[in-house]
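Folded chain entry
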Amino acid sequence: MPELPEVEVVRRGLAPHLVGRTVAAVDVLHPRPVRRHLGGPDDFAARLVGRTFREPARRGKYLWLPLDSGEAILAHLGMSGQFRVDAPGSPDQAHVRIRLHFTDGRSEVRFCDQRMFGGLLVSEADGGVPPEIAHIAPDPFEEAYDPEAVVRAIRRRRTGIKRALLDQTVVSGIGNIYADESLWLARVHYAQATDGMTAPRVRELLDAVRRIMGHALDQGGTSFDTLYVDVNGESGYFDRSLNAYGQEDRPCPRCGTPIRREAFMNRSSFRCPRCQRLPRNRR
């Protein structure tokens, strides 16, 4: 699933193709991507026609596209959602579900989703964060992000540190890939007890999160297949820079010890057994 860097790449790519443009027509080609819009496909389309887009925004893994009405299209990409920009009348990319046409007759914006776990809805955003995601914590790249508040929230919990990083009510935008990479960079085991970490240690880890995701953003995000691409259909290449995630049995770039893959919350965690030792109280 796309994490913060991938969603931010999409946001930046959409901005020049949306801001200031007015919707002429909307084609909803499949109802599933708008299943969370309570009014249904026809209402979804009707509420967009005649509206002009403002600057796209993002919080964590969510993207929203503000309109001059104060509403916004709230988008979650799921496993395979993509926004694509194409010339009017050009052949559809695979799995196009929604098309946006504009009054200026220039490029169309199309939402594609192979697995259809993603979706769009029109939110009563009132010019701010959509209420549907108001419970999600600010991410490390927002002005509203308060690192000291996150340090306190993490240390108050009685859980493993990776679980805390993945909790979107603590800090948003971090998924399995960037959690593993940040823990590797900070030399922290994913099962380290949060209430046993010092404040400086948590700050060091949060700094690692920003560094890792910033580096990923510079490289267009992480792409393992064609399910994640930017608005031009291009893949990111941060996967070439991964130190831990997906690197099972490969040498740790820091010490040469083979990276280990271990089961974690119905998924996997990757770590260096030498750089990221299991905490004594968890052995």
About this structure: The chain is about 25% helix and 20% strand. The beta strands are 23-28, 57-59, 62-66, 72-76, 81-86, 96-102, 108-113, 119-123, 260-264, 267-271. The mean pLDDT is 92.
